[in-house]
Give the backbone structure.
Amino acid sequence: MQSCLPGVGRSLCLACRQFTPVNKNLSRLQPFACILATQQHRKMASAKIGMANRLKGTEKNIWVEFGKLAAEHQALNLGQGFPDFKPPQHIIDEVVKAVNSDNALLAQYARSYGHPRLVNVLSKLYGPIMNHTINPMTDITVCVGAYGVLFCAVQGLVNPGDEVIIVEPYFDCYEPMAMVAGATPVFVPIRPSKTGSMSSADWKLDPEELASKFNSKTKAIVINNPNNPIGKVFQKDELQVIADLCIKHDVICIADEVYEWLIYDNCKHVKIASLPGMWDRTVTIGSGGKTFSATGWKLGWAIGPQKLIQPMQILHQNCIYTSPTPLQEAVAAGLEYELDLKDKNQLDDCYLYSLAKETQPKRDRLAAMLEDIGMEVTMPEGGYFLMADISKLKDKFQVPDDGSSDPYDYKFVRWMTETKKLAAIPPSAFYSKDHKNLGENFLRFCFIKDNETLRKASIVFKEWKESL
Ligand SMILES: Cc1ncc(COP(=O)(O)O)c(C=O)c1O
């Protein structure tokens, strides 16, 4: 090969990626050394050295922007969905035990599709709830959080050109995940059937509107039950409408049920997979982080028929491979403990039920604070969050325009975080571009917080009310 030094004859051009003749006058550091180094070459190089096209349109992330804002202003964070108290002591003890174990294998890679102890207890816990005998080896896959499982489901099951129906408001990652898979997201909103203070049960899907979104290109529908951010717990008849459409159009249902245990006011959570004909077409997603108030543990699972779980396992084995073994061991031991209490009907002691009992008064306390200042709360039947309508506050004060083209709720949250040192999340982030107006008169608050955090919030609201 000839010398590639500029001026001597040949050099590696970063645009061509070839050794090509060079202009003698070009510097040795000139990255586009080729004599053909035209504008077009530079464009080629700048397009190559950068982001893949499939990420276009997915650059913005609500958690990154508003997490940073809350930290910058040292605001009380009622925005992002995490408890600020410790997980139950028994799973903490179990993870310490796993990390300290004489069993050296607990520090090594776990089985790709889920640590056997974990998938075994998941099959025992969920079999009766789903009315199905679950094969722990073929019908379950474990991944890094429910996020990871959602990614495996969308990437493993959806083809470019497919349509994916997303019920909105939706957990924000559904839309970019569908886009990155090359699919077209198709949105259908749950709408409030009245105005003012209400229950999340008053937010409903219009069956006709929903039906109009299904066609021959529809591969999957993503539902979130209980819904983040509304807190709606879909009732059996509402799920049946979705199930009937899935069966009629031969569509997969991806059911994100990470808040399945956080159900309030004696409401009942029904798994869509348990409805007749739905096991065969449903991927049900759960989260160890949400179940045990340990969101940083990032352990999630999907349960469904082998024909849907296997593609997810294939994607996972090649892209992620496995999830942390000690955390899987601890969550497995934790679920065994809770399942034992559940089977003995000691529900007051069982975390799967007691957490909701402890959280309901927190929900009520925060809702009362928000109502007191003039927001109108949608009382959630489930989950971590509540939606508060801020329309009436517009009569009392004006949020200064921050000059951005963002929806009103973004401006309101930025202003509240900066001036009141209180952070929430703007729910229009959970709506598609064309439906952002449906969310922009609300704020999303997270109420699964320590009582001390809620006490601090009450001081903020009291001072705020006095200033009105
Ligand atoms: C509806 C919903 N699904 C999935 C997730 C992600 O769960 P994980 O922390 O297990 O990845 C969240 C987290 O906030 C969520 O709200």
